[in-house]
Amino acid sequence: MTHPNVAFQGERGSFSEEAAYKLLGRNIRVRPCETFAAMFRSVVTGKTRYCLAPIENTLAGSVYENYDLLLENDLHIIAEVSLRIVHNLIALRGTTMKDVREAYSHPVALAQCSRFFARHPKIEKKVFYDTAGAVKMLAAKKPEGAAAIASRVAAAFYRARILQTHLEDHQENYTRFLLLSRSARVSPRANKISIVFSTKNDPGALFRCLGVFALRDINLTKIESRPLRGRPWEYFFYLDFEGHLKDERSRRALSHLAEITTFLRVLGCYESGKR
Fold first, then answer.
1. What local confidence, expressed as pLDDT, does residue 60 receive?
2. Which of 53, 75, 95, 174 has the smallest CB count inside 10 Å?
């Protein structure tokens, strides 16, 4: 695993890049991608060994596009990491807090900093496609009176200055990322399993599926539904639960679930990421 290459969505200095360093260390090569689909495709085609996909945020909720891409692409979850999201007000050197009249960032980041903007009504929100991309734009175009809201890594990468930190409304602001690979790999320390399944649209069908886990005292940590395209009002259900594929309880639960579902796929068995 010398210098593994990792794809992520966004520009250099994004929170995804920061999460990649947290999970895999600094001894990696990173490949920024314009879209989530391009990030997945980078691994599927063998251009990179891994990609790191944000899957949910404690304030903004699930990243639905990446749930769909998990199903569309034959990749395996081999690890996860949770990153504390700290929003920083970043400007070019020489710009002071008094100079700032507008702040550029991704709309989700701007929404997470509403208290900051309430305290500074003279600073106008400016929507941009990417947090780190906003800092990149400052470095390239040098707009007067402009700042960006992004990560500390972005400030360092584009040689900008942090004017103020911890702009987010809530300290408990975390994003969970999944590390994906073409080949499955299960660590002996793995303690979480992710699956996706569908079932007939019959009364009690989902109840029976979830009962497979309740009967065996298996703890569910996440459930998400996504539309089953071409079949209105039917859904794929994504489920995370505690366990290991070698555990008797987990194997029996999955075997039982396979009997009562129309589709079942194990997305990965991996170690739960620590905050």
1. 85
2. 174
